[in-house]
Write a structure and sequence with these properties.
The protein has a single domain, classed as Immunoglobulin-like. The protein is 0% helix and 72% strand. It has strands at 3-11, 17-28, 34-45, 51-63, 68-79, 84-94, 97-108, 111-123. The strands form 2 sheets. It has a 5-stranded antiparallel beta sheet, with no helix packed on it. A 3-stranded antiparallel beta sheet has the order 6-7-8, with no helix packed on it.
Length: 131
Amino acid sequence: MEEKNNNQVVFFDNGYYLEVNVEILDSNTSKATSTRIAKKTATYKNSSGEIVWFVTVNGTFTYTGTSSTCTSSTVIAQSNVSSWKIDSKSASKSGNKVSAKATAKEYFLGFCIDTITKTVTLICDKNGNVA
């Protein structure tokens, strides 16, 4: 099951843009406590639509109809362009939400000319809805 929702696009003055989307990867609703696995990705693209770099947070949640909890989280951050490097990445979880933070730096002739830090947060409500 791969369902996309909550797509958002933010445009920058330099022609680049950031695309954010949520994907539901798996769900199990056959028990009293249900499971939802989802991911949220922020993708930085150039004016041609090519992926420059991205950060993804993966979260596994349990939900009961009255509450939800994040049980595990991971972060993936990767650059697809040689002039951009991922400087740092981290993931954290608390209650029913999980966050990933990544910092990417652009280099030209060995000098850092741009730095972007992006945090993506994935939340699962008591009914298993993610955003």
